[in-house]
Amino acid sequence: MPIDFRQVTKTYDDGTAAVQKFSLHIPSHTATVLLGSSGCGKTTLLRMVNRMVDPTSGSVLIDDEDVARAAPVALRRRIGYVMQNAGLLPHRKVIDNIATVPRLNGVSRGAAKRRAYELMEIVGLDYTLALKYPGQLSGGQQQRVGVARALAADPNILLMDEPFGAVDPLVRIELQRELKRIQTELRKTIIFVTHDVDEALTLGDQIVVLKKGAEVAQVGTPQEIVENPADQFVAQFLGLDSQRRTLSARPRAGGGWFISDARGKPLGVVDQAPSDQAPIDRAPETD
Ligand SMILES: Nc1ncnc2c1ncn2[C@@H]1O[C@H](COP(=O)(O)OP(=O)(O)OP(=O)(O)O)[C@@H](O)[C@H]1O
């Protein structure tokens, strides 16, 4: 289901102009990442899709239908939403958290549980966690439950608001990898909010770099943005102007290679040795 923002503006009651005349087409079955600094309006944009926030002017369309005409509760039940702190119900077991929306949609208890177990498998959660409470899980496991819950009603659209922001870097990379795998299989229309450049480059089919007021600085594929940043703002935000965005690889004891960035920040593990085992450039020199 494609999503279109048309000249959308949001001014909050206190006068904050969070979003000003924002327009964007989000194609079906792809992942679009909204990338920008804190306060630039990313969450506001995301929440306008499921009517947790209504625009002051302009419209948001899903499949050419203005969401303003949809009943908010029904709309939210057919759109998956994952937030930073998973947003799980603390007094309900993992399995019941995942089954919440199907149950609200009238699916029988048995069928909802079966579906919840299927989803645990899809997101890589061990079944033994099903009867635990969210507080008994690690941050990464909680986020997996959050993703499973968002997928439970088989929505076409998945909204993800900094879903991996609160977990440690290695778990974050693992969750990103899982999400990529899930997306290859399920092909949802995803809008993913982050301020992390590497995360955006890893997950986005389309990246939207935003300035304050949700002003679009650039829209493009990861490659287009890295190779041809629209201006100094984008280059700076991506860290392309100060140094070459260099990745380095070193062999890993158990096989495979660790990849890290120029500052030594680990990015992930790959199976194949990089061709010359030397630093890999992700972008051309900009100076
Ligand atoms: N309910 C609200 N009332 C008033 N101002 C708000 C409200 N929600 C957000 N804002 C303001 O709107 C602007 C955009 O906020 P928003 O949360 O959309 O940004 P963001 O890019 O998602 O930021 P972050 O990454 O910090 O979550 C900010 O200046 C914020 O303070």
Q: Which structural traits does this protein have?
A:
alpha/beta; disordered C terminus; Rossmann fold; 2 domains; binds adenosine-5'-triphosphate; 6-stranded mixed β-sheet; single chain; 14 strands; ATP-binding; globular; 287 residues; nucleotide-binding; ATP-binding cassette domain-containing protein; AAA+_ATPase
Question: How would you describe this structure to a colleague?
Answer:
With about 290 residues, this protein is of the alpha/beta class. The chain folds into two domains: about 5-245, P-loop containing nucleotide triphosphate hydrolases (Rossmann fold); about 245-280, no CATH class. The chain is built from nine helices and 14 strands. The chain has helices at about 40-50, 70-75, 95-105, 110-120, 140-150, 170-185, 195-205, 220-225, 230-235, and strands at about 5-10, 15-25, 30-35, 55-60, 65, 80, 155-160, 190-195, 205-210, 215-220, 245-250, 255-260, 265-270, 280. The protein has a six-stranded mixed β-sheet with strand order 6-7-8-3-9-10, sandwiched between helices. Strands 2-1-4-5 form a four-stranded antiparallel β-sheet, with helices on one face. It is globular, with a radius of gyration of 20 Å. The N and C termini lie far apart (about 40 Å). Residues about 275-285 have low confidence and may be disordered. Adenosine-5'-triphosphate (ATP) binds near residues 14, 16 and 38. Pfam families: ABC_tran (PF00005).
Sequence-ordered SSE layout with sheet pairings:
Blueprint: E1 3-11, E2 17-26, E3 31-36, H1 42-49, E4 57-62, E5 65-66, H2 72-77, E6 79-82, H3 94-104, H4 109-122, H5 139-151, E7 157-161, H6 169-186, E8 189-194, H7 197-203, E9 206-211, E10 215-220, H8 222-227, H9 232-237, E11 246-251, E12 257-260, E13 266-270, E14 280-281
Parallel strand pairs: 3-8, 3-9, 6-7, 7-8
Antiparallel strand pairs: 1-2, 1-4, 4-5, 9-10, 11-12, 11-14, 12-13
Helix pairs in contact: 3-4, 3-5, 4-5
Adenosine-5'-triphosphate (ATP) is lined by residues 12, 14, 16, 18, 36, 38-44, 195.
